[in-house]
Specification:
Layout: H1 2-32, H2 68-73, E1 75-77, E2 82-98, E3 112-124, E4 129-141, E5 154-168, E6 174-182, E7 203-212, E8 215-226, E9 235-250, E10 256-273, E11 276-293, E12 296-309, E13 312-326, E14 335-343, E15 378-390, E16 393-403, E17 411-412, E18 418-420, E19 428-442, E20 445-456, H3 458-461, E21 470-480
Antiparallel strand pairs: 1-2, 2-3, 2-21, 3-4, 4-5, 5-6, 6-7, 7-8, 8-9, 9-10, 10-11, 11-12, 12-13, 13-14, 14-15, 15-16, 16-19, 17-18, 19-20, 20-21
Amino acid sequence: MIQFSVLKAGSDMQSTFYRRITIFLFVSFLFFNKNIQAQIKDSLKTGYLLDAAEEYWPAHQPGEQKNFSDKINHIPIRGGKGFISMGGYFREMYEVYDNYLWGRGPQDNDGYFLHRAIVHADFRYNKNIRVFAQAQSSFLSGRNGGARPVQDLNKLAFDQIFGEYSFYSKNKSHYSFRIGKQALHYGVGSLLDIREINVRRSFFGMKFIAEFKNTKIDLFAMELMKTNPGFFDDKIDESQKIAGTWITQTFPRKFFNRLDARYLYTHRNPVKFAQGLGTEDRHTIGAALDFLKLRWSGHTEVDVQFGKFNGYPILAWKLVQTLTYQFNNVFLKPAWSIQSAMSSGDRNLTDSALNTFNPIYPRGIYYGYIDNVGSANLFLIHGKIEVEPVKKVKLTADYFKFWRQSVADGLYATGGSFLVAPGSDQRSVGSIIDILASYTYSSHLSLRGIVSYFKRGPFLEQDPTTPHDIRSISIAVIVRV
């Protein structure tokens, strides 16, 4: 009875929260709509982006030479008052693991192929009305044990399909209102990003975007789309909700050139931590600051989380610092970077409070190309060096060293799911070495090869469920149109 009351209260709180978000978005839209200025110039060309919904391809200049991609990227309609933009992303990838997931579960020693095709159409009726649709087909062949849940197989689905109304005010500020299935892609990928593995992640809901000068504000309220393996069978996952705001401020020609500030509310039921299984209502407040000075650049990130897990308090945090130096006009054009990051783990599994950081919905592969270690209950050091031996070819070497932040807590996967129980008082998780070679023939064609090795530390070596180190090789061909 007590549990029922807690869940009911949580449900009422969520309903109230989403009603307020909806009213705020709607009122904001009506208020800004009073100052519409319909006729504007085309935006600047973006080129290919990870999220095709954010691409813009302006009209071609008279006499400009066009290839096939140019012809389909901007097709004028209604006498030039609108246009249609079409494109696609195709990737073939061969991947082989020696001791996948440290030897857990079915193993495949001769490798398998991952196939992915994404096509989109952007219909812009005029300067105000837009419909965007993107379909993906992701599957695999030759893997012993079949597809891994969620990440490998989705035969055909619309991962984005939304309607948008946008306008410019008299002071040239730009406002957009979107409703439908969308991606969430913000910052450096540590909290909200496109899941760039075989199957991408999407959400259903509303988003309001305001842009003026160097400021961009996004407000959104959404539910996760549950990935199912068949044809057009993805469903809204009512157990996972997210709402919040993300503010980005740029400072051109300043030492500190970008500031990201965010507030996120997430609800998940059920969710599993080392402490147990339950309902989570979590609030995340954070900021990230970037600087750029000559050849130096840096990124600082701070996030604090609070809320309730099974009715008891949450208090968690994460800190990130990255420093990069780029050598210009030097042989091989080397660049190096050093990164440190720490996220909290649960201090005591026997008390009611939860201290484990939740990475929300991060990029699918974040720390290293062997995507086992996430960013919860973790301290890491990451060193990276990149060189360009010949034009269009880059070689990158990464080294990651991982420790548990709290020895009372376990190890979590990239998306925050519970992976390895605490088990021992050993802090060292292990290390990863990645060697990446990439060849970019053009914006339409690129090749990539990766060799990775995960060396277990004492924590994993003493756990009977993780008996082996991991080695992997992958080769990918990517085509964009």
